[in-house]
Amino acid sequence: MFFLTLLAFAVGCQAKANANTPQMGWNSWNTFKLNFNESILEKTADLLVSTGLRDAGFNYLIIDDGWQAATRAEDGRQQVNATKLPNGIAPIAKYAHERGLKIGIYSDAGIYTCGFQPGSWGYEELDAATYAQWGIDYLKYDNCGSFQAGTQSPPERFSKMRDALVASGRDIFYSLCEWGHQFPWYWADQIGQSYRMSGDITAIFSDTGKDCACKTAYCLNTGYAGCSVLTIIRKMREIAPFSKPGSFADMDMLEIGNGNMTLHQQRTHMSFWAALKSPLIIGADISKLSKESLSVLKNKNIIQISQDSLGKAALFVPELSVEKVKQVWAGDLSGGRTVVLLLNELNSTQNFELLVKALPALNSRETWKVEDVWSKEVIKVKGNYTVAVETHETKVLVFSRN
Ligand code: GLA
What we know:
One of its GO terms (molecular function) is alpha-galactosidase activity. The chain has about 400 residues and is an alpha/beta fold.
């Protein structure tokens, strides 16, 4: 039955928004939760421009859960919370558009959203038409309140909204938020442009032992929140091979600028989200970002890896990795280049032996130009060489033929 259902989706067409490279932007949830308002959103739009983040590529302003009124109107339409957003959504969309930004909104494939606001289940067409009318460019669609939505599977419920978005006549980017429970890497490419692959991220770098009930891709525990950066990277070992242009695994919002991560930890976070082709959605209050965090987010060379035209996620290299000690990941970039990530999980510096024999894309007969993306150092390499990597640092090395 499950496979028949999948087959039915395979013939459906995906919503049409262009997603050859992962989307970039800002989302209200991680900092503001349900407590944002019009002025915070407009100020964030201005900050995306004045900090240079928009020009670096962060062009979606995404309003997460909490914009809705507690009940629908008599005609069934979703209403806007009049205290937080007294003028509605359309003027905010206009405000964003006038600043060269796109605007995103949030809803849910169940009766309730995760914040217990009215979800879109049973109202998909009406809601998609309403969003289109407001000028919305992006929908993040969540999976709470789904038990009340009867026996429909997530692929069915998420496909209904895909069809409604297509029917709305507006090009609306469709970001699925199903936390990886029903393994969306097998079906989400028929439905939307990206799919969350884990429970909610938290601004903690290392696996605390208590975080994120599921630490591997095929775990069946439904508890989901509080995933550390390292746990999400762990889960991507099995999931990264499924990512492709038009359907990227979403590792959740960036926590750079939230919590107390060191510079190396923030750079590791950014490096993995970029090289594994996750959407890059800032979750911090931009008005409070330190210079250091802003420079991590705006690093041009890392963003180029994220936005590389091949759209291929780097993959885990088990032969060169040691559990809880060191990780090596590698992936193809356009122009015959290869990106290699060396992550040190220890609390002291360690050496990585590189590797040329173990990475199929590189061979030891050639001389390679190797660029260290964060330090900007460029060296020439033939055969193996050794790289020192500091605590929680990730060296991002781009290999190109000389
Ligand atoms: C879920 C999602 C979060 C956020 C909240 C809103 O937990 O995974 O990203 O959208 O719901 O309630």
